[in-house]
Amino acid sequence: MRTFNGSFFMPSVFTLIGIPGLESLHHWISIPFCLFYLLGVTGNCIILHIVRTDPRLHEPMYYFLAMLSLSDMGMSLPTMISLLRVLWSISKEIQFNICVVQMFLIHTFSFTESSVLLAMALDRYVAICHPLRYATILTPKLIAKIGIAALLRSAIPLIPLLARLAFFPFCHSHVLSHSYCLHQDIIRLACADTKFNVIYGLVVITMLWGMDSLGILVSYVFILRSVLRIASRQGRLKALNTCASHICAVLILYVPMIGLSIVHRFAKHSSPFMHIFMAHIYLMVPPVLNPIIYSVKTKQIRQGVLHLILPHKICSSSM
Fold first, then answer.
1. Which residues neighbour 15 within 8 Å (Cβ) at sequence distance 6 or greater?
2. Which of 52, 90, 113, 115 could disulfide-pair with 150, CB 3.0 to 4.6 Å?
3. Radius of gyration, CA atoms only, the chain
4. Alpha helices (runs of H) in 88-205, residue ranges in sequence order
5. Residue 275: predicted pLDDT
């Protein structure tokens, strides 16, 4: 560590924690975590492979699904290495610079996933409300622009927030409350005025997640209005069924996020295990469940998965 103004310190490392009170079981606890990470990475890689290799899936809906898979992996993979290092007792320390990079990746892809879900809601709106113009509105060029805009929109606002951390002195404990770095965890340890980071962070969350959730809600209001105009009950159910996977994906992201925010806000003195449990659910559940939901609910993805797993049987049955 190097001294700052004679009495404060700029840490070169922070200390991560695993599961408090269960340190003796960390090696066993790492097994389900490894399985979850393996399942999430494998599922999302399969989705990406199917969308890339199957020409029938070169449509806007599946391009957005591929973006969702990339966001899922980008949100969960940065936590995997540090978590397993802690659980396997390799090292509990993380360099300050690596910590900042990890925060940047986690928060960026978390915001990006929310933006992609908004884009998928708009995709469903165009498909149901303007089906004849679907292909002309959502062109591959526009989809690429939406993907780049979602990433930049999520990353750029974080730069001033995280850049300020390099100038904060840390005179309190350097022990973080998770097995990975989060912005709200770091500023809790700073011995400086963090009002800018707190207010700016709240504005960023409100502007990004707030606008995304509002956009998703408005999209579904128009979708429901259009669906209710369909004369046949079967037609209404068919139209709503195309939105089922997306609705599940929205709930999978936003429910744990809201739960984690409530725990941080109103249950500060609750068991540390509760905070850690909610944080891991927020980062690990979407990458695991999203591929499963889309494989079960979307016929084309389900057929692609079956063709990948059982190519000979699928080919023989289609002949």
1. 92, 93, 94, 174, 175, 176
2. 115
3. 22
4. 96-129, 134-137, 140-155, 158-163, 183-187, 195-205
5. 75
Q: Is the dihedral of CA 120, 123, 129, 131 positive or negative?
A: negative
pLDDT 10s digits, 182-220: 888 888 888 888 888 889 988 998 899 999 999 999 999
Please identify which residue in the block is written with the tokens 């709200």. Answer: 184
* pLDDT tens-digit map of 127-169: 998 988 998 999 999 999 999 999 999 999 999 989 888 888 8
Q: Are strands 13-15 and 93-95 parallel, antiparallel or unpaired?
A: antiparallel
Tokens 């997640």 locate to 209
The span from the CA of 59 to the CA of 232, in Å, is 27
Threshold 0.85, pTM exceeds: yes
In DSSP terms, 13 is beta-bridged to 95
List Cβ<8 Å contacts ≥24 apart for 193-201.
Answer: 194/168, 196/164, 197/161, 197/164, 197/165, 200/160, 200/161, 201/161
Q: What's the mean pLDDT in 288-298? A: 89
Residue type, 238: K
Given CA atoms 278, 280, 282, 287 in this order, what sign does their dihedral have? negative
DSSP state of 190: -
* Residues 145 and 60 sit within 8 Å (Cβ to Cβ): no
**CA nearest neighbour of 106 among 169, 178, 58:** 178
